[in-house]
What we know:
- By secondary structure, the protein is an alpha/beta fold.
- It has helices at residues 4-15, 38-50, 83-92, 111-118, 139-157, 189-192, 196-211, 245-260, 283-296, 319-334, 336-349; strands at 28-30, 57-60, 96-101, 104-106, 131-133, 161-164, 183-184, 187-188, 220-222, 234-237, 266-267, 302-304, 354-355, 374-376, 380-382, 392-397, 401-404, 410-412, 415-420, 428-431, 435-438, 452-456, 462-468, 481-489, 494-497, 501-503, 511-517, 534-538, 543-546.
- It has an eight-stranded parallel beta sheet with strand order 11-10-9-6-3-2-1-12.
- Strand 2 (57-60), helix 3 and strand 3 (96-101) form a beta-alpha-beta unit.
Amino acid sequence: GPTMDQVIAAYRNATGGTPMFPKWAYGLFHSKDKYASQKEILAVKDGYRNNKIPIDCIVQDWDYWSPSAWGSHVMDPGKYPDPKAMLDAFHKANIHGMISIWPVFQNKSNPNFDELNKAGYLLDSGGSSGHQFFDTYDPEAQKMFWRQQNEQLVSKYGWDGIWADNTEPQDYPAGTINRDTANTALGKMALVVNAFPIGHSKALWEGWRSTGPKGKRLYILTRSDTAGQQRYGSSTWSGDIDCNFPTYAKQIPGGLNFMASGFPYWTTDIGGYWGHDLDWSTSANNELFTRWFQYGTFSPIFRVHGGGSRELYGNQWSAATKANLLKFDNLRYRLMPYIYSLAWKVTSQSYTIMRPLVFDYQNDSSLFDIKDQFLFGPALMINPVTAAGVTSRSVTLPAGTWYDFWTGASKEGGSKVTMDAPLSSIPILVKAGSILPMGPMIQYATESVDPLEIRIYKGKDGSFTLYDDANDGYDYESGAYATIEFTWDDAAGKLTVGARKGSYEGMLASRTFNVVLVGANKGVGIDVTETADETITYDGSETSVTLK
Protein backbone atom coordinates (compact mmCIF):
# COMPACT_ATOMS: atom_id res chain seq x y z
CA GLY A 1 0.00 0.00 0.00
CA PRO A 2 -0.86 2.35 1.42
CA THR A 3 -3.44 2.97 -1.33
CA MET A 4 -5.85 0.31 -2.56
CA ASP A 5 -4.55 0.70 -6.12
CA GLN A 6 -1.04 -0.04 -4.87
CA VAL A 7 -2.27 -3.16 -3.07
CA ILE A 8 -3.93 -4.40 -6.27
CA ALA A 9 -0.83 -3.53 -8.32
CA ALA A 10 1.33 -5.52 -5.91
CA TYR A 11 -1.02 -8.50 -6.17
CA ARG A 12 -0.84 -8.42 -9.96
CA ASN A 13 2.92 -7.95 -9.88
CA ALA A 14 3.11 -11.15 -7.83
CA THR A 15 0.56 -13.20 -9.78
CA GLY A 16 0.59 -11.72 -13.28
CA GLY A 17 -0.58 -8.65 -15.17
CA THR A 18 -3.66 -8.26 -17.32
CA PRO A 19 -3.56 -8.27 -21.14
CA MET A 20 -5.66 -5.92 -23.26
CA PHE A 21 -8.83 -7.39 -24.69
CA PRO A 22 -9.70 -6.55 -28.29
CA LYS A 23 -11.66 -3.33 -28.43
CA TRP A 24 -14.83 -5.11 -29.49
CA ALA A 25 -14.89 -6.91 -26.13
CA TYR A 26 -15.78 -3.61 -24.44
CA GLY A 27 -18.99 -3.33 -26.46
CA LEU A 28 -22.29 -5.19 -26.03
CA PHE A 29 -22.42 -9.00 -25.98
CA HIS A 30 -25.70 -10.76 -26.67
CA SER A 31 -26.52 -14.40 -26.09
CA LYS A 32 -29.21 -16.62 -24.69
CA ASP A 33 -29.60 -20.15 -23.41
CA LYS A 34 -29.51 -21.20 -26.13
CA TYR A 35 -29.53 -20.40 -29.83
CA ALA A 36 -30.30 -23.63 -31.64
CA SER A 37 -29.46 -23.03 -35.29
CA GLN A 38 -27.45 -21.01 -37.76
CA LYS A 39 -30.66 -19.48 -39.06
CA GLU A 40 -31.69 -18.30 -35.59
CA ILE A 41 -28.35 -16.74 -34.71
CA LEU A 42 -28.06 -14.95 -38.05
CA ALA A 43 -31.51 -13.48 -37.42
CA VAL A 44 -30.12 -11.95 -34.23
CA LYS A 45 -27.36 -10.29 -36.25
CA ASP A 46 -29.94 -8.83 -38.61
CA GLY A 47 -32.21 -7.78 -35.75
CA TYR A 48 -29.52 -5.65 -34.17
CA ARG A 49 -28.04 -4.16 -37.32
CA ASN A 50 -31.38 -3.52 -39.07
CA ASN A 51 -32.71 -1.73 -35.99
CA LYS A 52 -29.50 0.29 -35.52
CA ILE A 53 -28.87 -1.02 -32.01
CA PRO A 54 -25.13 -1.01 -31.18
CA ILE A 55 -23.60 -4.45 -30.62
CA ASP A 56 -20.19 -6.09 -30.96
CA CYS A 57 -20.56 -9.79 -30.18
CA ILE A 58 -23.15 -12.55 -30.53
CA VAL A 59 -22.57 -15.74 -28.56
CA GLN A 60 -23.32 -19.35 -29.36
CA ASP A 61 -24.03 -21.09 -26.07
CA TRP A 62 -23.88 -24.84 -25.43
CA ASP A 63 -25.46 -27.89 -27.09
CA TYR A 64 -24.70 -26.86 -30.66
CA TRP A 65 -22.98 -30.25 -30.91
CA SER A 66 -26.09 -32.36 -30.21
CA PRO A 67 -26.67 -35.18 -31.16
CA SER A 68 -22.87 -35.57 -31.17
CA ALA A 69 -20.99 -36.04 -27.92
CA TRP A 70 -19.98 -33.43 -25.36
CA GLY A 71 -16.44 -32.42 -26.22
CA SER A 72 -16.72 -33.50 -29.84
CA HIS A 73 -16.21 -29.88 -30.97
CA VAL A 74 -18.73 -30.46 -33.74
CA MET A 75 -21.40 -28.02 -34.87
CA ASP A 76 -24.32 -30.20 -35.91
CA PRO A 77 -24.54 -29.86 -39.71
CA GLY A 78 -28.30 -30.32 -39.60
CA LYS A 79 -28.66 -27.09 -37.62
CA TYR A 80 -25.43 -25.32 -38.65
CA PRO A 81 -24.89 -26.20 -42.32
CA ASP A 82 -22.03 -23.72 -42.84
CA PRO A 83 -20.52 -22.28 -39.64
CA LYS A 84 -17.75 -20.52 -41.53
CA ALA A 85 -20.28 -18.68 -43.70
CA MET A 86 -22.12 -17.73 -40.51
CA LEU A 87 -18.96 -16.21 -39.00
CA ASP A 88 -18.14 -14.52 -42.30
CA ALA A 89 -21.58 -12.89 -42.22
CA PHE A 90 -20.93 -11.75 -38.65
CA HIS A 91 -17.61 -10.20 -39.62
CA LYS A 92 -19.07 -8.49 -42.68
CA ALA A 93 -21.57 -6.83 -40.31
CA ASN A 94 -18.74 -5.86 -37.90
CA ILE A 95 -19.97 -8.35 -35.31
CA HIS A 96 -17.77 -10.90 -33.56
CA GLY A 97 -18.65 -14.44 -32.54
CA MET A 98 -17.93 -16.19 -29.26
CA ILE A 99 -18.36 -19.95 -28.81
CA SER A 100 -19.06 -21.93 -25.63
CA ILE A 101 -16.53 -24.70 -25.00
CA TRP A 102 -16.67 -27.00 -21.98
CA PRO A 103 -13.85 -29.01 -20.37
CA VAL A 104 -16.15 -32.07 -20.40
CA PHE A 105 -15.80 -35.05 -22.72
CA GLN A 106 -18.37 -37.76 -23.33
CA ASN A 107 -17.54 -41.35 -24.20
CA LYS A 108 -19.91 -41.63 -27.16
CA SER A 109 -18.25 -42.17 -30.55
CA ASN A 110 -15.97 -39.27 -29.67
CA PRO A 111 -12.41 -39.29 -31.05
CA ASN A 112 -11.49 -36.42 -28.71
CA PHE A 113 -12.49 -38.47 -25.67
CA ASP A 114 -10.58 -41.45 -27.00
CA GLU A 115 -7.40 -39.45 -27.61
CA LEU A 116 -7.45 -37.81 -24.17
CA ASN A 117 -8.34 -41.07 -22.46
CA LYS A 118 -5.56 -43.03 -24.19
CA ALA A 119 -3.03 -40.42 -23.04
CA GLY A 120 -4.31 -40.57 -19.47
CA TYR A 121 -5.59 -36.98 -19.50
CA LEU A 122 -9.13 -37.57 -18.20
CA LEU A 123 -10.05 -37.31 -14.52
CA ASP A 124 -11.81 -40.14 -12.69
CA SER A 125 -15.57 -39.70 -12.66
CA GLY A 126 -16.04 -42.34 -9.98
CA GLY A 127 -18.93 -43.83 -11.88
CA SER A 128 -20.34 -44.82 -15.25
CA SER A 129 -21.83 -41.54 -16.44
CA GLY A 130 -19.72 -41.54 -19.59
CA HIS A 131 -18.69 -37.89 -19.01
CA GLN A 132 -15.26 -36.86 -17.73
CA PHE A 133 -13.32 -33.62 -17.26
CA PHE A 134 -9.87 -33.32 -18.72
CA ASP A 135 -6.87 -32.77 -16.45
CA THR A 136 -6.43 -29.01 -16.63
CA TYR A 137 -3.43 -29.35 -14.29
CA ASP A 138 -1.35 -31.21 -16.88
CA PRO A 139 0.54 -29.02 -19.41
CA GLU A 140 0.43 -31.75 -22.05
CA ALA A 141 -3.30 -32.26 -21.54
CA GLN A 142 -3.74 -28.50 -21.95
CA LYS A 143 -1.97 -28.63 -25.30
CA MET A 144 -4.07 -31.56 -26.54
CA PHE A 145 -7.29 -29.89 -25.40
CA TRP A 146 -6.42 -26.69 -27.25
CA ARG A 147 -5.31 -28.45 -30.41
CA GLN A 148 -8.57 -30.38 -30.63
CA GLN A 149 -10.84 -27.38 -30.25
CA ASN A 150 -8.71 -25.07 -32.38
CA GLU A 151 -8.46 -27.43 -35.34
CA GLN A 152 -12.05 -28.64 -35.13
CA LEU A 153 -13.86 -25.45 -34.15
CA VAL A 154 -12.06 -22.16 -33.40
CA SER A 155 -9.72 -21.50 -36.33
CA LYS A 156 -11.68 -23.79 -38.62
CA TYR A 157 -14.68 -21.47 -38.60
CA GLY A 158 -13.28 -18.11 -37.45
CA TRP A 159 -14.54 -17.69 -33.90
CA ASP A 160 -13.24 -14.58 -32.13
CA GLY A 161 -13.62 -15.45 -28.45
CA ILE A 162 -14.16 -18.40 -26.14
CA TRP A 163 -16.73 -18.91 -23.44
CA ALA A 164 -15.10 -21.32 -21.00
CA ASP A 165 -18.15 -22.65 -19.19
CA ASN A 166 -18.27 -24.97 -16.16
CA THR A 167 -14.75 -24.22 -14.97
CA GLU A 168 -15.39 -24.88 -11.25
CA PRO A 169 -15.88 -27.69 -12.20
CA GLN A 170 -19.53 -28.31 -11.38
CA ASP A 171 -20.57 -31.97 -11.45
CA TYR A 172 -22.61 -31.55 -14.61
CA PRO A 173 -23.56 -33.70 -16.41
CA ALA A 174 -24.15 -35.82 -13.31
CA GLY A 175 -21.31 -38.04 -12.18
CA THR A 176 -18.66 -36.16 -14.14
CA ILE A 177 -16.02 -36.13 -11.43
CA ASN A 178 -15.06 -37.61 -8.06
CA ARG A 179 -12.84 -35.07 -6.34
CA ASP A 180 -11.79 -37.52 -3.61
CA THR A 181 -10.43 -40.16 -5.95
CA ALA A 182 -9.40 -38.25 -9.07
CA ASN A 183 -5.64 -38.01 -9.56
CA THR A 184 -4.42 -34.87 -11.31
CA ALA A 185 -0.95 -33.93 -12.50
CA LEU A 186 -0.64 -32.03 -9.21
CA GLY A 187 -1.93 -34.81 -6.96
CA LYS A 188 -5.34 -35.58 -5.49
CA MET A 189 -7.96 -33.26 -6.91
CA ALA A 190 -9.52 -32.63 -3.50
CA LEU A 191 -6.34 -30.77 -2.55
CA VAL A 192 -6.12 -28.61 -5.67
CA VAL A 193 -9.71 -28.33 -6.88
CA ASN A 194 -9.80 -24.51 -6.67
CA ALA A 195 -6.95 -24.32 -9.20
CA PHE A 196 -8.97 -26.13 -11.89
CA PRO A 197 -9.97 -22.97 -13.82
CA ILE A 198 -6.50 -21.44 -14.10
CA GLY A 199 -5.20 -24.45 -16.03
CA HIS A 200 -8.17 -24.19 -18.34
CA SER A 201 -7.54 -20.50 -19.09
CA LYS A 202 -3.82 -21.23 -19.47
CA ALA A 203 -4.58 -23.88 -22.09
CA LEU A 204 -6.65 -21.38 -24.09
CA TRP A 205 -4.23 -18.46 -23.70
CA GLU A 206 -1.01 -20.25 -24.50
CA GLY A 207 -2.61 -22.27 -27.28
CA TRP A 208 -4.19 -19.22 -28.90
CA ARG A 209 -0.96 -17.26 -28.72
CA SER A 210 1.10 -20.08 -30.27
CA THR A 211 -1.17 -21.69 -32.87
CA GLY A 212 -4.48 -19.83 -32.79
CA PRO A 213 -6.03 -17.23 -35.08
CA LYS A 214 -3.49 -14.70 -36.26
CA GLY A 215 -4.05 -11.00 -35.69
CA LYS A 216 -6.71 -11.57 -33.03
CA ARG A 217 -6.44 -10.90 -29.32
CA LEU A 218 -8.04 -13.60 -27.24
CA TYR A 219 -11.13 -12.85 -25.17
CA ILE A 220 -12.10 -15.50 -22.59
CA LEU A 221 -15.28 -15.54 -20.50
CA THR A 222 -15.00 -18.02 -17.63
CA ARG A 223 -17.30 -18.90 -14.74
CA SER A 224 -14.56 -19.31 -12.13
CA ASP A 225 -11.18 -17.82 -11.26
CA THR A 226 -8.26 -18.53 -9.01
CA ALA A 227 -5.39 -16.26 -8.06
CA GLY A 228 -3.35 -15.14 -11.05
CA GLN A 229 -5.84 -16.14 -13.70
CA GLN A 230 -6.07 -12.56 -14.93
CA ARG A 231 -2.71 -13.05 -16.68
CA TYR A 232 -4.39 -15.40 -19.16
CA GLY A 233 -6.81 -12.81 -20.53
CA SER A 234 -9.90 -14.08 -18.76
CA SER A 235 -12.99 -12.28 -17.51
CA THR A 236 -15.52 -13.76 -15.11
CA TRP A 237 -19.27 -13.66 -14.66
CA SER A 238 -21.35 -14.40 -11.59
CA GLY A 239 -22.86 -17.66 -12.84
CA ASP A 240 -26.36 -19.03 -13.21
CA ILE A 241 -28.43 -16.70 -11.04
CA ASP A 242 -32.13 -16.00 -10.53
CA CYS A 243 -34.13 -13.32 -12.31
CA ASN A 244 -35.39 -11.03 -9.56
CA PHE A 245 -34.51 -7.77 -7.87
CA PRO A 246 -32.96 -9.26 -4.68
CA THR A 247 -30.57 -11.37 -6.78
CA TYR A 248 -29.72 -8.41 -8.99
CA ALA A 249 -28.99 -6.23 -5.94
CA LYS A 250 -26.47 -8.81 -4.70
CA GLN A 251 -24.51 -8.61 -7.95
CA ILE A 252 -23.29 -5.09 -7.15
CA PRO A 253 -21.40 -5.82 -3.89
CA GLY A 254 -20.43 -9.20 -5.34
CA GLY A 255 -18.73 -7.50 -8.27
CA LEU A 256 -17.11 -4.86 -6.07
CA ASN A 257 -15.65 -7.54 -3.80
CA PHE A 258 -14.38 -9.34 -6.89
CA MET A 259 -12.65 -6.13 -8.00
CA ALA A 260 -11.14 -5.72 -4.53
CA SER A 261 -9.72 -9.24 -4.86
CA GLY A 262 -7.55 -8.03 -7.74
CA PHE A 263 -9.49 -9.31 -10.76
CA PRO A 264 -10.26 -6.43 -13.15
CA TYR A 265 -12.99 -7.86 -15.41
CA TRP A 266 -16.45 -8.79 -14.13
CA THR A 267 -19.87 -9.23 -15.67
CA THR A 268 -23.29 -10.73 -14.94
CA ASP A 269 -26.10 -12.24 -16.97
CA ILE A 270 -28.12 -9.05 -17.46
CA GLY A 271 -31.63 -9.97 -16.34
CA GLY A 272 -30.41 -13.12 -14.56
CA TYR A 273 -29.93 -16.60 -15.98
CA TRP A 274 -33.01 -18.59 -14.91
CA GLY A 275 -35.49 -16.78 -17.13
CA HIS A 276 -36.45 -19.67 -19.37
CA ASP A 277 -40.11 -19.74 -18.28
CA LEU A 278 -40.57 -16.05 -17.49
CA ASP A 279 -42.90 -13.83 -19.45
CA TRP A 280 -40.45 -11.06 -20.29
CA SER A 281 -43.25 -8.95 -21.76
CA THR A 282 -44.78 -8.07 -18.38
CA SER A 283 -44.21 -4.57 -17.08
CA ALA A 284 -42.50 -6.03 -13.99
CA ASN A 285 -39.97 -7.95 -16.07
CA ASN A 286 -39.47 -5.01 -18.41
CA GLU A 287 -38.55 -2.99 -15.34
CA LEU A 288 -36.21 -5.66 -13.93
CA PHE A 289 -34.35 -5.99 -17.22
CA THR A 290 -34.09 -2.22 -17.67
CA ARG A 291 -32.60 -1.66 -14.22
CA TRP A 292 -30.16 -4.54 -14.64
CA PHE A 293 -29.17 -3.29 -18.08
CA GLN A 294 -28.43 0.16 -16.64
CA TYR A 295 -26.05 -1.45 -14.13
CA GLY A 296 -24.54 -3.65 -16.85
CA THR A 297 -23.71 -0.57 -18.90
CA PHE A 298 -21.11 0.25 -16.26
CA SER A 299 -19.74 -3.24 -15.72
CA PRO A 300 -16.28 -3.75 -17.21
CA ILE A 301 -17.85 -6.31 -19.58
CA PHE A 302 -21.35 -5.47 -20.90
CA ARG A 303 -23.33 -8.63 -21.54
CA VAL A 304 -26.89 -9.95 -21.92
CA HIS A 305 -27.49 -13.66 -21.33
CA GLY A 306 -30.00 -16.11 -19.91
CA GLY A 307 -33.15 -18.08 -20.55
CA GLY A 308 -35.78 -16.62 -22.82
CA SER A 309 -35.33 -14.18 -25.66
CA ARG A 310 -34.02 -10.78 -24.52
CA GLU A 311 -32.81 -9.23 -27.77
CA LEU A 312 -33.09 -5.47 -27.44
CA TYR A 313 -35.25 -5.22 -30.57
CA GLY A 314 -37.74 -7.89 -29.42
CA ASN A 315 -41.47 -7.41 -29.07
CA GLN A 316 -41.32 -8.53 -25.44
CA TRP A 317 -40.25 -4.97 -24.63
CA SER A 318 -42.61 -2.01 -24.65
CA ALA A 319 -41.74 1.01 -26.78
CA ALA A 320 -40.64 2.85 -23.63
CA THR A 321 -38.43 -0.06 -22.56
CA LYS A 322 -36.80 -0.23 -25.99
CA ALA A 323 -36.05 3.48 -25.83
CA ASN A 324 -34.57 3.17 -22.34
CA LEU A 325 -32.38 0.23 -23.33
CA LEU A 326 -31.16 1.96 -26.48
CA LYS A 327 -30.34 5.07 -24.45
CA PHE A 328 -27.92 3.19 -22.21
CA ASP A 329 -26.53 1.09 -25.03
CA ASN A 330 -25.70 4.32 -26.88
CA LEU A 331 -24.17 5.74 -23.72
CA ARG A 332 -21.85 2.75 -23.41
CA TYR A 333 -20.66 3.29 -26.96
CA ARG A 334 -20.23 7.04 -26.57
CA LEU A 335 -18.00 6.27 -23.58
CA MET A 336 -15.82 3.90 -25.60
CA PRO A 337 -12.78 6.26 -25.73
CA TYR A 338 -12.95 6.58 -21.94
CA ILE A 339 -13.42 2.83 -21.38
CA TYR A 340 -10.70 1.73 -23.80
CA SER A 341 -8.25 4.21 -22.26
CA LEU A 342 -9.05 2.79 -18.82
CA ALA A 343 -8.50 -0.72 -20.18
CA TRP A 344 -4.98 0.35 -21.10
CA LYS A 345 -4.56 1.67 -17.58
CA VAL A 346 -5.58 -1.78 -16.28
CA THR A 347 -2.87 -3.35 -18.44
CA SER A 348 -0.14 -0.75 -17.99
CA GLN A 349 -0.73 0.34 -14.38
CA SER A 350 -2.76 -2.50 -12.79
CA TYR A 351 -5.75 -0.16 -12.50
CA THR A 352 -9.30 -1.21 -11.57
CA ILE A 353 -12.17 0.23 -13.63
CA MET A 354 -15.13 -0.77 -11.44
CA ARG A 355 -14.17 0.67 -8.06
CA PRO A 356 -15.58 0.39 -4.54
CA LEU A 357 -15.71 3.89 -3.06
CA VAL A 358 -12.95 2.97 -0.60
CA PHE A 359 -10.48 2.81 -3.50
CA ASP A 360 -10.60 6.59 -3.94
CA TYR A 361 -11.79 7.67 -0.48
CA GLN A 362 -9.69 5.55 1.82
CA ASN A 363 -9.83 8.01 4.72
CA ASP A 364 -13.62 8.32 4.87
CA SER A 365 -14.90 5.34 6.87
CA SER A 366 -18.52 6.35 6.24
CA LEU A 367 -18.09 5.15 2.63
CA PHE A 368 -16.52 1.76 3.37
CA ASP A 369 -19.70 -0.32 3.47
CA ILE A 370 -21.75 1.31 0.72
CA LYS A 371 -22.95 -1.62 -1.37
CA ASP A 372 -24.93 0.04 -4.16
CA GLN A 373 -22.68 2.84 -5.44
CA PHE A 374 -19.35 2.57 -7.22
CA LEU A 375 -16.88 4.51 -9.29
CA PHE A 376 -16.46 3.68 -12.97
CA GLY A 377 -12.97 4.96 -13.65
CA PRO A 378 -11.75 8.25 -12.16
CA ALA A 379 -14.66 10.42 -13.34
CA LEU A 380 -18.01 8.68 -12.91
CA MET A 381 -19.93 7.56 -9.83
CA ILE A 382 -22.69 5.09 -10.68
CA ASN A 383 -25.78 4.68 -8.51
CA PRO A 384 -27.97 1.83 -9.77
CA VAL A 385 -31.59 1.33 -8.76
CA THR A 386 -32.04 -2.11 -7.21
CA ALA A 387 -35.72 -2.33 -6.26
CA ALA A 388 -39.00 -2.39 -8.16
CA GLY A 389 -41.20 0.70 -8.39
CA VAL A 390 -38.45 3.08 -7.32
CA THR A 391 -38.22 6.50 -9.00
CA SER A 392 -35.69 8.18 -6.69
CA ARG A 393 -32.82 7.05 -4.51
CA SER A 394 -30.49 8.26 -1.79
CA VAL A 395 -26.95 8.93 -2.97
CA THR A 396 -23.98 9.46 -0.69
CA LEU A 397 -21.69 12.14 -2.12
CA PRO A 398 -18.04 11.88 -1.09
CA ALA A 399 -16.23 15.13 -0.34
CA GLY A 400 -15.75 17.53 -3.24
CA THR A 401 -17.89 18.97 -6.00
CA TRP A 402 -20.02 16.62 -8.13
CA TYR A 403 -21.93 17.22 -11.34
CA ASP A 404 -25.18 15.56 -12.36
CA PHE A 405 -24.33 13.85 -15.65
CA TRP A 406 -27.87 14.38 -16.95
CA THR A 407 -28.36 18.07 -16.07
CA GLY A 408 -24.94 19.58 -15.43
CA ALA A 409 -26.06 20.91 -12.05
CA SER A 410 -23.32 20.84 -9.41
CA LYS A 411 -23.62 19.54 -5.87
CA GLU A 412 -21.26 19.75 -2.91
CA GLY A 413 -20.23 16.46 -1.38
CA GLY A 414 -19.90 15.23 2.16
CA SER A 415 -23.60 14.49 2.54
CA LYS A 416 -26.49 12.37 1.32
CA VAL A 417 -28.89 13.64 -1.30
CA THR A 418 -32.05 12.24 -2.84
CA MET A 419 -31.89 12.13 -6.62
CA ASP A 420 -34.50 11.44 -9.27
CA ALA A 421 -34.29 7.99 -10.81
CA PRO A 422 -37.14 7.50 -13.29
CA LEU A 423 -37.15 4.20 -15.14
CA SER A 424 -35.38 5.93 -18.01
CA SER A 425 -32.36 6.84 -15.89
CA ILE A 426 -30.15 6.27 -12.88
CA PRO A 427 -28.16 8.91 -10.98
CA ILE A 428 -24.70 9.35 -12.50
CA LEU A 429 -22.37 11.86 -10.88
CA VAL A 430 -19.15 13.24 -12.36
CA LYS A 431 -16.28 14.36 -10.15
CA ALA A 432 -15.07 17.96 -10.45
CA GLY A 433 -11.74 18.10 -12.25
CA SER A 434 -12.73 15.28 -14.59
CA ILE A 435 -11.89 15.25 -18.28
CA LEU A 436 -14.36 12.91 -19.96
CA PRO A 437 -13.72 11.93 -23.61
CA MET A 438 -16.86 10.85 -25.45
CA GLY A 439 -16.93 9.50 -28.96
CA PRO A 440 -19.47 9.81 -31.75
CA MET A 441 -22.65 7.78 -31.97
CA ILE A 442 -21.47 4.41 -33.31
CA GLN A 443 -22.87 0.94 -33.97
CA TYR A 444 -19.75 -1.04 -33.01
CA ALA A 445 -16.66 -0.31 -30.95
CA THR A 446 -14.19 0.26 -33.77
CA GLU A 447 -16.47 2.18 -36.12
CA SER A 448 -15.02 5.62 -35.39
CA VAL A 449 -12.88 7.48 -32.88
CA ASP A 450 -13.30 10.95 -34.37
CA PRO A 451 -14.42 13.54 -33.55
CA LEU A 452 -14.21 13.34 -29.77
CA GLU A 453 -16.21 15.49 -27.40
CA ILE A 454 -13.99 16.44 -24.47
CA ARG A 455 -16.17 17.35 -21.50
CA ILE A 456 -14.48 19.41 -18.77
CA TYR A 457 -15.92 19.48 -15.25
CA LYS A 458 -14.43 22.54 -13.57
CA GLY A 459 -13.75 23.01 -9.88
CA LYS A 460 -10.43 21.22 -9.59
CA ASP A 461 -7.31 20.53 -11.62
CA GLY A 462 -7.45 17.29 -13.58
CA SER A 463 -5.89 15.11 -16.23
CA PHE A 464 -6.73 12.15 -18.45
CA THR A 465 -4.62 10.00 -20.76
CA LEU A 466 -6.33 9.04 -24.01
CA TYR A 467 -5.16 5.69 -25.42
CA ASP A 468 -5.49 4.27 -28.92
CA ASP A 469 -4.05 1.31 -30.77
CA ALA A 470 -4.96 -0.93 -33.71
CA ASN A 471 -7.93 -2.32 -31.67
CA ASP A 472 -6.84 -5.94 -32.06
CA GLY A 473 -3.70 -8.05 -32.30
CA TYR A 474 -0.71 -7.97 -29.97
CA ASP A 475 1.46 -5.27 -31.53
CA TYR A 476 0.63 -3.06 -28.55
CA GLU A 477 2.88 -5.34 -26.47
CA SER A 478 5.88 -4.10 -28.47
CA GLY A 479 4.91 -0.43 -28.24
CA ALA A 480 2.51 0.02 -31.18
CA TYR A 481 0.08 2.41 -29.52
CA ALA A 482 -0.41 6.14 -28.94
CA THR A 483 -1.28 8.22 -25.89
CA ILE A 484 -2.38 11.83 -25.56
CA GLU A 485 -2.33 13.58 -22.20
CA PHE A 486 -5.10 16.08 -21.45
CA THR A 487 -4.48 18.47 -18.53
CA TRP A 488 -6.94 20.95 -16.99
CA ASP A 489 -5.69 23.96 -15.04
CA ASP A 490 -8.78 25.04 -13.14
CA ALA A 491 -7.56 28.44 -11.92
CA ALA A 492 -6.51 29.49 -15.41
CA GLY A 493 -9.43 27.80 -17.17
CA LYS A 494 -6.88 26.22 -19.49
CA LEU A 495 -6.95 22.84 -21.21
CA THR A 496 -3.63 21.59 -22.54
CA VAL A 497 -3.50 18.74 -25.03
CA GLY A 498 -0.02 17.29 -24.84
CA ALA A 499 2.15 16.07 -27.69
CA ARG A 500 1.15 12.63 -28.87
CA LYS A 501 3.45 9.85 -27.73
CA GLY A 502 3.88 6.77 -29.88
CA SER A 503 2.20 5.54 -33.04
CA TYR A 504 0.66 2.46 -34.62
CA GLU A 505 -0.33 1.28 -38.07
CA GLY A 506 -3.57 2.93 -39.18
CA MET A 507 -3.37 5.77 -36.66
CA LEU A 508 -5.23 8.97 -37.57
CA ALA A 509 -2.65 11.71 -38.11
CA SER A 510 -5.19 14.45 -37.43
CA ARG A 511 -7.88 14.46 -34.75
CA THR A 512 -10.77 16.75 -33.90
CA PHE A 513 -11.47 17.52 -30.25
CA ASN A 514 -14.66 19.44 -29.49
CA VAL A 515 -14.09 20.87 -26.03
CA VAL A 516 -17.12 21.57 -23.82
CA LEU A 517 -17.07 23.21 -20.39
CA VAL A 518 -19.95 21.46 -18.65
CA GLY A 519 -22.60 23.57 -16.97
CA ALA A 520 -26.35 23.62 -16.40
CA ASN A 521 -27.93 21.84 -19.38
CA LYS A 522 -24.69 22.10 -21.32
CA GLY A 523 -22.51 19.12 -22.19
CA VAL A 524 -24.96 16.72 -20.55
CA GLY A 525 -26.51 13.32 -21.17
CA ILE A 526 -25.79 10.99 -24.06
CA ASP A 527 -26.38 13.38 -26.95
CA VAL A 528 -23.51 14.97 -28.82
CA THR A 529 -23.22 18.61 -27.77
CA GLU A 530 -24.14 20.70 -30.79
CA THR A 531 -21.94 23.73 -30.08
CA ALA A 532 -18.51 23.27 -28.53
CA ASP A 533 -16.73 25.98 -26.57
CA GLU A 534 -13.59 25.33 -28.57
CA THR A 535 -12.66 23.01 -31.43
CA ILE A 536 -9.10 21.76 -31.62
CA THR A 537 -7.73 20.37 -34.86
CA TYR A 538 -4.95 18.25 -33.44
CA ASP A 539 -1.92 17.17 -35.47
CA GLY A 540 0.00 15.53 -32.63
CA SER A 541 1.70 18.67 -31.37
CA GLU A 542 1.02 20.19 -27.97
CA THR A 543 -1.72 22.79 -27.97
CA SER A 544 -3.93 24.54 -25.46
CA VAL A 545 -7.18 26.49 -25.22
CA THR A 546 -8.65 28.77 -22.56
CA LEU A 547 -12.29 28.30 -21.67
CA LYS A 548 -14.47 30.96 -20.11
